[in-house]
Write a structure and sequence with these properties.
about 120 residues, mainly alpha, 5 helices, elongated
Length: about 120
């Protein structure tokens, strides 16, 4: 399928979930010390906590609404499920933002007739 024909909500959802998967995987690899390259650690070393807050904020907000916020060590024990839940949360956020962008961008254009046979 041509990416130019994707609706804006799908573009936003794929973009946000892809970035979420990348950031979550990098964070978990750095915390488990699988990545030991000093140049890579220098790039994110001082900002690792900030990157963690940004990447996992939908999940921690959801857990906070439930009334129980587990510690980070409890969250990271479930690394794969954390990555997938975070990607799903960012997929939904990206879909919503893409849908809003599409609505705002196309509000002055006439509707397209797709019944051309």
């Amino acid at each position: 399928m041509n990416k130019e024909l994707w609706p804006y909500w799908m573009k936003g959802a794929v973009l946000f979930s892809g970035l979420s998967l990348l950031a979550s995987t990098l964070i978990l690899l750095m915390l488990s010390e699988v990545v030991k390259d000093p140049h890579f650690r220098y790039l994110f070393g001082n900002n690792l906590f900030s990157l963690m807050i940004i990447a996992f904020s939908p999940l921690t907000a959801f857990l906070g609404m439930r009334g129980s916020v587990p510690s980070f060590s409890e969250i990271f024990r479930e690394g794969i499920s954390l990555i997938l839940i975070t990607a799903l949360a960012y997929f939904l956020i990206g879909a919503l933002l893409g849908w809003l962008y599409g609505k705002l961008k196309n509000r002055n254009k006439p509707p397209v007739n797709r019944n051309l046979s």
